[in-house]
Design brief:
- By secondary structure, the chain is of the alpha+beta class.
- It has a domain of about 90 residues: Hotdog Thioesterase (Thiol Ester Dehydrase, Chain A).
- The protein contains 4 helices and 5 strands; from the N terminus they run βααααββββ.
- A 5-stranded antiparallel β-sheet has the order 1-3-4-5-2, covered by helices on one side.
- It is elongated, with a radius of gyration of 17 Å.
- The chain starts with 13 loop residues before the first strand and ends in a 7-residue tail after the last strand.
């Protein structure tokens, strides 16, 4: 299976992925990455912080963008080249995060696509904002 090639992409195309953050998601991410910041895994510590409870890793949330790029837009075969991120609000256990990727520029001569990337919570608040640069898959050779 191959994702959309450069000639199948256009400005305005978009895709979304949504997931509710569980406590297990946070512990699994910490175990995989080695990021055991107590703000993520220690409730007693987190209660004394500005957020008053544990929050998800920012890069866990950003990973949902990767899921869109790899699976939907452009899809399988896409090479992730660059990502700029701004973390705007905390993500808590139980939040449902919707990641969105929308094409803002197609650079056909270089086989590159610029994509606006955002994540919002169940209240519609943007928790992450950014921009990605990807190389979509090339068409199969005949």
């Amino acid at each position: 299976m191959i994702g959309k090639t450069i000639d199948q992409l256009s400005v305005g195309q978009a895709a979304e992925f949504a997931k509710t953050i569980s406590e297990s998601d946070i512990y699994l991410y910490a175990g995989i990455t080695g990021d055991f910041n107590p703000a993520h895994i220690n409730e007693a510590y987190a209660q004394k912080t500005f957020f008053k409870t544990r929050i998800a890793h920012g890069m866990l949330t950003a990973g949902f963008i990767s899921a869109i790029l790899a699976n939907q837009l452009p899809g399988p075969g896409t090479i992730y080249m660059k990502q700029e991120l701004s973390f705007l609000a905390p993500v808590r256990i139980g939040d449902t995060i919707t990641a969105r990727a929308e094409i803002i520029e197609v650079i056909a001569e270089k086989n590159r696509v610029r994509i606006k990337t955002t994540c919002s919570n169940q209240e519609g608040k943007t928790v992450l904002d950014g921009e990605a640069l990807v190389s979509p898959p090339k068409p199969p050779k005949a």
